[in-house]
Amino acid sequence: MRTDEGERLAKRVAALVPCSRREAEQYITGGWVSVDGRVVEEPQYRVQQQVVTLDRDASLLDATSATLLLHKPAGHDDGRLAPDGQRPRPGGPTPARQSLTQARQLVGDEASQRLLKRHLVGLDSLVPLESGASGLLVFTQDWRVARKLQEDAALIEHEVMVEVAGDVSPETLRRLNRAPEGAAAARASVKISLNSNNEGSSRLRCAIKGGQPGLLADLFDQVGLQMTGMKRIRIGRVMLGALPPGQWRFLSPHERF
Predict the structure, then answer these.
(1) pLDDT (tens digit, 9 = 90+) per residue, 2-40?
(2) CATH 3.10.290.10-classified regions of the chain
């Protein structure tokens, strides 16, 4: 069928409901309309004799802005968009946004939403994370979430687990928690504790406000510790939890940063 045949899906839905053309478009982009049993999200889609149905639970009140939480694998970027006109450099980190697909949504996502095309439009990634680190990333369309993450950036605590080679002595731990000259302001928001010692390696829990990229690497380098891994497991009150690497879920309605 040629794209210029038939009538626009929005027109058909407007007559079916009935409702305004604008409301019909909202039903369609909201994922509530099926053509011959398949969900179609494009209002301009052309239909002829196909069966068009509106989900019995369809509501225009559910068209809220989405926030997606991703467990970024190490080696991926943090999802922030490059300035206009700039393309990712060849051989650079894998784009984190490529994981935001239906196939990578967490099975049993508590939010009980299906990923729609509109959920991927205008997504901001506002909480930086080094490409070599793994852990929690936030993508949002919600201006309230964006405002919280931006305006309270210096106050929101990030919890990061850091793996280092070798043992960490009590003296080294004291040095990590002591602000060096000229860096008191940056270091005042960092608290580091020993989580576990294993043969040949140690794990430390770091609570840092502001999520300053590179700060933890600098601190560990100053005391002669070699970082072998870093994972962000919490931003504010939102936890990474059991979300597997490379998978994502919707922010639940009850969760707040």
Answers:
(1) 555 889 999 999 999 999 999 999 888 888 899 999 999
(2) 7-62
Residues 6+ apart with CB under 8 A from 29: 41, 43, 63, 116, 117, 118
SS3 58: coil
**Reported CATH class of domain 7-62:** alpha beta
Distances (CA, A) of 193 to 22, 26, 165, 176, 210: 55, 50, 16, 9, 18
Residues paired with 38 in a beta bridge: 35
Q: What is the pLDDT of residues 114-168, one digit of tens each?
A: 788 888 888 999 999 999 999 999 999 999 999 999 999 989 999 999 999 999 9
Residue 23 and residue 29: Cα distance in Å, rounded? 10
Q: Which two tokens stand for residue 66?
A: 């989405």
Q: Angle, to 10 degrees, between the axis of helix 21-29 and the axis of helix 9-16? A: 110
Query: Which spans in the chain are helix H?
Result: 9-16, 21-29, 143-151, 170-176, 184-187, 215-222
Which burial class, exposed, middle or buried, applies to 92 when counting CB atoms under 10 A from its CB (0-12, 13-18, 19+)?
exposed
- In this structure, whether the domain defined by 67-154+237-250 belongs to CATH 3.30.70.580 is answered with yes
Rounded Cα gap, residues 103 and 115, in angstroms: 10
- Enter the CATH code of domain 157-235: 3.30.70.1560
- The residues of the chain that CATH labels 3.30.70.1560 are 157-235
- Supply the pTM of this predicted model: 0.79
